[in-house]
Amino acid sequence: MLRDKNLIPLSHQHQHALALCVRIDRAVQAGDADIRAFEAEIQQIFEQEIQFHFLAEESVIFPPAGKFAEMQVLVAELIAEHTVLREFVGLARRLELDNTTLQKFAALLSRHIRKEERQLFEQIQQLMSPEELLALGNALNEALKPAQELCLLSNQATRLRPKTP
Question: The whole model's pTM is what?
Answer without folding.
Answer: 0.87
